[in-house]
Amino acid sequence: MTDAKPMTGHQAATAKGVMDTRAIGGCDPTAAICARGIIRDFQAGQSTIRVLHGIDADIRSGEMTYVVGESGSGKTTLISIMCGILWPTEGEVRVFGTDIYALSDTELVNFRLENIGFIFQQYNLIPSIDAAANAAVPLIAKGMAVDRARRRAMELLDALNIGDQAEKLPRQLSGGQQQRVAIARALVHEPRLVVCDEPTAALDARSGRRVMDLLREVAVAQDRACIIVTHDNRIFDLADRILVLEDGGVTHDGTEMPEDH
Amino acid sequence: MLWIAIRMLTGDKQKFYGLLFGIAFSTLLITQQLTIFVNLIERGASGVYNSPEAEVWVMDTVSRTTDVKYEMPPTALDEVRSVRGVEWAVPHLRGSAAVRTRTGDLEFVEIIGVDDATLIGLPEVMIEGSKDVLSQPDTVIIDDVGITNMFADGEDPLGQRLELNDQRAVIRGIADSIPSFTSQVVLYTKYSQALNYVPGTRNRLSFVLAGVSEGETAAAVADRIEAQTGLKAETRDELARAGVDFIIENTGIPLNFGITVALGFVVGVAIVGLTFSLFIRDNIKQFGALKAIGVTNGKLVRMVGTQAALVGSIGYAFGIVGTVLFIWGFSGNPTFKGFYIPWQIPFISAVSVVVILAMTGYAGLRSVLRTEPASVFR
Q1: Are A140 and B8 within 8 A, CB to CB?
Q2: Within a 13 Å sphere around the CA of B335, how many CA atoms are in the beta-carbon half?
Q3: Burial class (CB in 10 A: 0-12, 13-18, 19+), B135
Q4: What CATH number corresponds to the domain at position A231?
Q5: Do A85 and B295 touch (CB under 8 A)?
Q6: Domain spans of chain B, in order of start
Q7: How far is CA A15 from CA A242, B60, B282, B298, in A?
Q8: Nearest residue of B to residue A125 by CA position?
Q9: Range list of β-strands (E), A45-125
Q10: Taking CB atoms and an 8 Å limit, are B293 and A106 in contact across chains?
Q11: Beta-carbon contacts below 8 Å between A and B
Q12: Does a structural domain hold residue A137?
């Protein structure tokens, strides 16, 4: 009888001859996220579609890691699993040493609130509250009084150079300003992991680089990590590490983009 | 998070006002229609309430209400007076007649003949004149509905002469009475005078009104009267209830009002449900983002619950205030005279609002809870 276990993404990448810089097997002790054997299936009517084929991946603290790939390569699914908002069909994810899918639902939600900041592509700001309140949402969700949370958020908005826009509603802000509010919301509760989805998709090249510089400045530190899902090749040079996904497997994990991309 | 929930709701002014309107309109429709219904059917008991001294009403066995009655022979009065526990008993006549006014109009009126000696059977309060005017010949006391129906604005009814079945009648007083179910004009006069006004039949006594001796209960005395005289005797509350039941059983009013109240509920569900589901749909990405950030389902339930409670309480308050203003605004109209809002009606409206919000809130909440936080990345 043959071993039917499918190759992990890492094994697939190695088999393709891509340079691997990461230890195989146990988690890297410096890893903010350690994902092992991640499989994710989706039901489409009667059939099951496997989107992730047993991915192994590490995200290290102190680094800005890009997850890149074509549309449909599984990068959004991978990032969702890595930050605890989508259950894997199989596999294990440790975030700062915590096996997040061994937690109860409530514990996982609280874990996200304590440890993860999100920047969504569409920002998803609440339209009826001002910028300061939007930025303060994680603190308010943690139970901080609204006034105090707003003050903390104001400090961050000042640092992001939009302090003077703090009392404006999202619709009164430009796209770039809304993004800064979203960044402030992701950082206001000082999470150890920041997850960004296509942060430069709607920006021109100069603005995109400025946002990435800003993120590096505020979101990357020795005990923090930042994951960025992008297919914007204008900012690939700003990554500390790049994970390339193809057809649900990691085909590259290195400090630079492979030449064939 | 409740602060955010409230701001999310009030920030979308169009939907917020839409929700308020839905709840307020529903509350107004339910409360106002139930109030009118209850007050209208209570008028089936107005004949009883307008004669407050009577504790027991004695009538023919086939009589059902103060208006649906069969006359008794005059000897019934003495029979009742002979029953133990009856403190006093007086004759009471209720009949109808056509009246010709000075201006030549024809109006059908109810003639109530009260006891000549004690005037028991008259309403308690007089608006103008005193009860004693009945001692003058050909005198009638008109109720306030009659003033509106039979006289022009500003015309003084006192001293006006009427023609009742070819008999002369002079209005010398105005009684403050509860209008009847049909808002028919009522003329009060002495029993002996009423016999002249009402077309003659052999038996003319509609009711015997009785009071009970100290230490006796009305129910016990009524039972004793029935046992001893073979007549039907009911306490004040029993006859009042019978008047209300008669309207419920013999008119389409409960069904009509019931349909309107049900429509109020359906309109509430439709407007609130539609608006609330639109509100949730418009904010589903934000709810998804909140879930991703780390807001628990429990907190989301409380958020949606707070939003529902806010629109519910404000909309309900508007609806109740609207009903109060309606009743107050029409209080001068005899049709709505004495209308009040029993506490049970606002309670029923509140329960309806809670049910409307629970149904629509649950539908909205389901979509919030079913939203995967990962959907915000798509």
Answers
A1: no
A2: 6
A3: exposed
A4: 3.40.50.300
A5: no
A6: 2-43+252-377, 73-230
A7: 18, 108, 47, 47
A8: B286
A9: 47-60, 64-69, 90-95, 98-99, 116-119
A10: no
A11: 93
A12: no
- Cβ <8 Å between A79 and B377: yes
Cβ distance of B376 and A122 shorter than 8 Å: yes
Residue of A nearest to B4 (CA): A129
| Opening angle at CA A168, ends A164 and A172, nearest 5 | 115
- Asked whether residue A72 is assigned to any structural domain, the reply reads yes
- The distance of A84 to chain B (nearest Cα, Å) reads 8
* Strand intervals (E) in chain A: 31-44, 47-60, 64-69, 90-95, 98-99, 116-119, 193-197, 225-229, 241-246, 249-254
Say which amino acid occupies B228: Q
Q: What are phi and psi of A159, to 5 degrees?
A: -65, -30
- Chain B hits for A106, Cβ within 8 Å: 296, 298
Using a CB-CB distance cutoff of 8 angstroms, which residues of chain B are in contact with residue A138? 293-294
Q: Which of B285, B297, B372 sits opposite A122 (nearest CB)?
A: B285
Q: What CA–CA distances, in Å, run from A104 to A80, A81, A89, A99, A255?
A: 17, 15, 16, 11, 35
* Closest CA in chain B for residue A106: B296
CB contact under 8 A, A141 and B286: no
Domain assignment of residue A43, given as a range = 1-96+192-261
The shortest CB-CB distance from B292 to any of A85, A110, A127 is to A85
Long-range residue pairs from B66-72, CB within 8 A, at least 24 positions apart, any chain: B66/B94, B66/B207, B66/B239, B66/B243, B67/B94, B67/B180, B67/B181, B67/B243, B68/B246, B69/B94, B69/B206, B69/B207, B71/B201, B71/B203, B71/B204, B71/B205, B71/B206, B72/B203, B72/B205, B72/B206, B72/B208, B72/B231
One-letter amino acid for residue A186 of the chain: A
Inter-chain contact B293–A122, Cβ cutoff 8 Å? Answer: no
What amino acid occupies position A54?
G
Tell me the C-alpha distance between B222 and A87, whole Å: 78
Q: Which of A86, A106, A140 sits opposite B4 (nearest CB)?
A: A140
Residue A142 lies in a domain: no
Q: Tell me which amino acid residue B323 is.
A: T
State which residue of chain A sits closest to B294, comparing Cα positions.
A113
Distance CA A199, CA A215 (A): 10
Would you call B291 and A124 a contact, using CB atoms and an 8 Å cutoff? no
From the list A105, A121, A127, the residue facing B11 with the nearest CB is A127
CA A140 to chain centre: 22
Has residue A159 been placed in a domain?
A: no
Nearest CB partner across the interface for A141, out of B285, B293, B378:
B293
- Answer yes or no: pTM beyond 0.80: no
Q: Per the structure, how many domains does chain A have?
A: 1
A160–chain B nearest CA distance, Å: 21
Tens-binned pLDDT, residue by residue, of chain A (261 aa): 333 334 433 334 334 333 333 443 567 777 888 888 889 988 888 888 888 888 888 888 888 899 988 888 888 888 889 888 888 998 888 888 888 888 888 888 889 898 899 888 888 888 888 999 999 999 998 888 989 999 999 988 888 888 898 899 999 998 888 888 988 898 888 888 989 888 877 677 777 787 788 788 777 777 888 899 888 778 888 888 888 888 888 888 887 777 666
Please state the ipTM of this predicted complex.
0.78
Could you read off the pLDDT of B148-167 as tens digits, one per residue?
Answer: 878 877 788 888 888 888 88
